[in-house]
Amino acid sequence: MNWMRRLVPRMIKRHWSDMSSRTRRTEARVRELEAALAKLRNTMLVLHESPVYVAAEDLGFNGQRVRKAVFAEMAVRLRFEAVVETGTALGSTTGWLAQAAGVPVWTCECEARHFAIARQRLRECPDVRVERSESRTFLRALAKGGLTAKNTFFYLDAHGSDDVPLREEIEIICDAWERYTLMIDDFRVPGDDGYGFDTYGGRALDVDLVRDLVARYDLQCFFPAAAAAEETGARRGWVVAASRGACGDGLASLKSLRRWVPEDIVAGKADN
Hints:
The protein is of the alpha/beta class. The protein folds into 2 domains: 1-49; 61-266, Vaccinia Virus protein VP39 (Rossmann fold, 3-Layer(aba) Sandwich). It has 9 helices and 10 strands. An 8-stranded mixed beta sheet has the order 3-2-1-4-5-9-8-10, sandwiched between helices. It has a two-stranded antiparallel sheet with strand order 6-7. A hairpin with a 2-residue loop joins β6 (199-200) and β7. α5 runs parallel beside α6.
């Protein structure tokens, strides 16, 4: 009987542990299924309402009117000659950028379904080139052509999975282009968590992720001057950065932007 008294609690404990483990796996699968269904509903809604891209207030830059106005200011002040986007998704921001900037747009999407939908929706935008490609491969290919001599606006939004190519994207651009302005989507805005931001593997898309690159390439960085409460749409955070010179000076002249100066760079402590 003694062995029974010892064995039964162990069996119950093991059974309970197995049940708990199965429950966690089931809950994880349910969350994955719910996320997949949400994406499917969004895709079907977009295709139903706009099978071909048509400009609308809620399309482009997550429907954020303040950010759209800031971009319009930048486009006038900096006179972009080309736009490059990583992470086309369904093509809403791509189409908006093409119309707002009035210059050729190059964009890439690695997910097959999104690529097919975006190419279909953007087929009537003659100055938009949609490629199915991983973002780093896409940027390296562009860096080998004549585009590097053009004043280029980059919209970096290819961080929708566990793979976050952002640092490598920045390195490719800064090493190859002469004049460039970068806007990173889903980025944490210091001092205003009303703006949404992404986290991957427990690490947020924030200044700590790119601090050393800002120092290495001597980038000038700016966040929205408007509070999240003044924004519309999804209220996703963003940061814009540019090389020093005409691009950086142009951004510094805009009242709609507030400059960010990392303390450790100012103090000369950042790695170069």
